[in-house]
Amino acid sequence: MIEPFRPLVEYAVFKFCQRNQMRYPKKREYAHTKDGTVIMETALITRFLEKLERVFQEERPYRIKAGVKKRDGTSVCQEITIAKTYVQELAEYCIS
Questions:
Q1: For a FRET experiment, which of 18, 22, 49, 50 has its CA 20 to 30 Å from that of 7?
Q2: Higher per-residue pLDDT: 68 or 72
Q3: pTM (2 decimals)?
């Protein structure tokens, strides 16, 4: 099955590594091993997870099937809710 949250995680990585950010990851906070594995400090991991949580908490207009809607048929939903809806729609499509 497709990784449903991958676009949100990739977006969080992109936003986390932008150079115009005040807390850009420093070279001393991560290292590469000979086999290509990236080793990160705990503080860097914590900052990334906080950024990922903020990405999941962001809200945007989305057309939902049921619930409270505005006049244009949209409702403000969190990104995580929209991703869960896509997963449910994909599961229903695969079953039918």
A1: 22
A2: 72
A3: 0.56
